[in-house]
UniProtKB/TrEMBL annotation:
The species this protein was found in: Bosea lathyri
InterPro entries membership: NrtA/CpmA_ABC-bd_dom (IPR044527)
Protein's name according to its UniProt entry: NitT/TauT family transport system ATP-binding protein
Subcellular location: Endomembrane system
Recorded GO CC terms: endomembrane system
GO function terms (MF aspect): ATP binding
Pfam families: NMT1_2 (PF13379)
Source taxon at top rank: Bacteria
């Protein structure tokens, strides 16, 4: 008997394994009829999962932790039986701001400390001239992107939300927000940084891997009670995603993966933006040559194991961002979200 599952996703490269599970037939091979639902915001995904309009969802790991802890206005206990990737993000700023920072930089802008100090110098100049603060965005408050921005700015003693304004901009809206001047920079997952560079309006300052390798990012989240009650469904979907992981990790399949992702009901972006990202070629903009980064985004089986230790970095990021004051109870709850036993049984 075929089992029907509705799985929500956001249009990002890191939804790839969910897309492949459907489009390459891996879910069907596991006895699943997978219905994929493209969403417009991370809060929509969380809320629809919570009220069971979705069975599972492509989700920010920190968003699953926040929902479980009941911070951010929603109390929705989650379980993560499998991750979907590690790494894959970047910080991009407008060309105008990049050129200003480059003039102020004392050293190589590829060094996070150098670029952070250049940002601090630009902020100080603007303040002295009576200009409004800069605005940076992340895709959601509870996200690795928010915490990477905090880490980068802390290199120069800056605080997100104080020294610079902070906004939430869903991934597909980041390029327009930069184009319109609503934000001066953003941190988001691939391919939206590459899309800003391709549009000629942005320059990548740093990749997430420059700040932190093997950074927790997206997961496949279920309601905690459903993950326990529907063990067979969890196992089948895990198995389909693991098949997709093996397929995606073969270099000869990357261009076909770009084709799947480019479709109008998936990411709706040209393949020539997606293919370089999948091959680890990061186009930086501002007249600089592309960077080649091995394993810029990880889809391998090792990366997919839900690691309870990731909860510690997430909680530290929440604390640095002023979202929580950590407690032992929080740590215990957050660690319990990541369920390696459900992964290893797949």
């Amino acid at each position: 008997m075929t089992l029907h599952l509705r799985v929500g996703f956001m249009p990002l490269v890191d939804c790839a394994l969910v897309i492949l599970a459907k489009d390459e037939g891996f879910a069907e091979a596991e006895g699943l009829n997978l219905e994929l639902v493209r969403e417009v915001s991370w809060s929509n995904l969380r809320d629809k999962l919570n009220v069971r309009l979705l069975d599972a969802a492509h989700m920010l790991g920190p968003a699953a932790v926040a929902a479980t802890l009941g911070i951010g206005g929603v109390k929705a206990p989650m379980a993560v039986p499998i991750a979907l990737n590690l790494d894959g993000s970047a910080i991009t700023i407008s060309l105008r701001r990049f050129e200003e920072m480059a003039r102020l930089a004392d050293g190589d802008m590829a060094d996070p400390a150098v670029s952070a100090r250049a940002l601090a110098a630009m902020i100080a100049r603007r303040k002295a001239s009576g200009l409004p603060p800069l605005t940076f965005a992340a895709v959601f408050g509870f996200s690795s992107h928010t915490y990477l921005l905090c880490e980068w700015m802390a290199e120069a003693g800056l605080k997100l939300g104080e020294d610079v304004r902070f906004e939430i901009v869903p991934p597909p809206q980041t390029v327009e927000a930069l184009t319109s001047g609503r934000v001066d920079g953003f941190c988001a997952g691939a391919p939206w940084n590459a899309a800003a560079v391709a549009a000629g309006i942005g320059a990548m300052v740093l990749c997430g891997v420059d700040l932190r390798r093997n950074c927790p990012d997206k997961v496949l989240a279920w309601r905690a009670d459903d993950a326990e009650r529907r063990a067979a469904a969890v196992s089948k979907l895990n198995a389909a995603i693991l098949r997709a992981s093996d397929w995606a990790c073969r270099p000869e399949n990357r261009d076909r993966l770009a084709m799947h992702l480019s479709k109008p009901d998936r990411l709706a972006l040209p393949q020539d933006i997606l293919e370089p990202v999948l091959h680890g070629e990061l186009r930086q903009g501002a007249g600089r040559p592309p960077r080649q980064i091995e394993r810029f985004i990880r889809f391998d089986r090792e990366a997919l194991r839900p690691d309870p230790d990731h909860a510690h970095w997430i909680l530290a990021g929440m604390e640095q961002a002023g979202q929580i004051v950590r407690s032992p109870e929080m740590t215990e709850q957050a660690r319990a979200i990541f369920r390696p036993a459900l992964f290893e049984g797949s």
